[in-house]
């Protein structure tokens, strides 16, 4: 949930007006309605909802875990290299554009992060 907080707040800080967020966590409905989540996470859920209310257009989608390969690669790369802030704004890592191209062409079998 913390990643969702950081990403929505970062998108707002970047003055993005329209967002589409794909989440592979089955807890998305609980996060959005603040039901069935532990009390100590309610403040994070409120931060997400507050950030989402600031956008002109928001599309949230619950996706299958394996379909979010680029997000998984970015997260893994960030953790491996100990990036505590997104490094994508600085044109990103060299593998990212080729991976996006492969995904758009439907070549999901060749994930190479």
Automatic annotation (TrEMBL):
Domain of life: Eukaryota
Name of the protein: RNase H type-1 domain-containing protein
Protein source organism: Brassica carinata (Ethiopian mustard)
